[in-house]
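Weekly structure sync - notes
Attendees: PM, LS, DV (DV joined late)
Agenda: review two folding runs queued last week.

Item 1: First target. Sequence and structure tokens pasted below for the record.
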Amino acid sequence: MAGVTARACANIALVKYWGKRDADLNLPAAGSLSLSLAALVTETRVEFDPALGADLIELEGKPAGTAEAGRVSRFLDLVRERAAITTRARVTSHNRFPTASGLASSASGFAALAVAATRAAGLELPPRELSILARHGSGSAARSIFGGFVRMHAGDTDESSYAEPITSSGT
């Protein structure tokens, strides 16, 4: 399988979701509105490699810590399940802005991971499904799938909690 690189932008919530209704599914307690920040980009590369015995996760040029690697591997398990593969992956991710500075680096990171991993696994998911999948990694990642102004739907189920871009009405 070929490696795929994807980019996603951090976002800032203009109307926040104020917590989680379901922590396992990252379902927000309420909907939200955000703005993507085009200058704050995460770039992530995923390559599924049959020679690997475990996922190899590199963040900011260093091997990921145990907790971070576990979180990424659990997310990759969702992609593997969807793609009906068991192949382990090599993941490299870099933020083009300060990590852990309150600028939604996990949102852009998991959004980029969702796009790169699904495409590397041979999946072509529509934007709504990518948003739902990204939300499993980070609640705010659902919004980072898109640019511009984005609305997050709280939804009552896994499938009804997703983000979508807000487009201009042309008026």
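Item 2: Second target, run right after the first with the same settings.
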Amino acid sequence: LLWSIPVVLVLVILIGVVFANRLVAPIIEIADVAEQISYKDLTQRVTSQYNDDEIYTLINAFNGMIDRLQRSFSHIVNFNSHVAHELKTPIAIIKGECEVALRNKQKPEEYRDALKAILEETQRMLKIVEDLLLLARLSYSTSVFSFVEFDLKEFFREMCLKQQLLALPAGVALTFSLPKETIKVKGDPVHLGRLFVNIISNAIK
């Protein structure tokens, strides 16, 4: 009996060490992966396979958390890029209108036209900001569209005149030809404007 007690204690210690290692090893691996994760690199994952259901659940939960963080950071990057792209054009048009108005002495109606264009672009920027806020909340839907009847001919005339301000610094001659008759359509002029402005600005580039 006296000899068996030390043997049993040794066996118990050995078994305890084995189980402790099995429990600690995945935790150490998770900690190592967590140390390597940063906003610059969210691709790290715990890849080791363990038979224990509890450890397997823990690893899946950890990897799932990193997946969600990676999607969130990707959304932030895309959103920032979208903001810069959407606001760049109206800001450039406002800048161009101001430069033209200040370059030489203009007629009063020319100043009014410049102020009108600046006001329209400011309103368009406000609409873009509202849409981007919806996009940021991931709740973008067709309810943001506002369908009204408007003159498509006048719509394209004003758009092309504004885009000419962006084409001149690039050394590009932008010309346009419009039909004589009035064309009435029902749609969302703000979003259609964003669509065609992107097409024309890409063509200028």
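Discussion on item 2: The chain has a mean pLDDT of 78.
Action: LS to circulate a short write-up before next sync.
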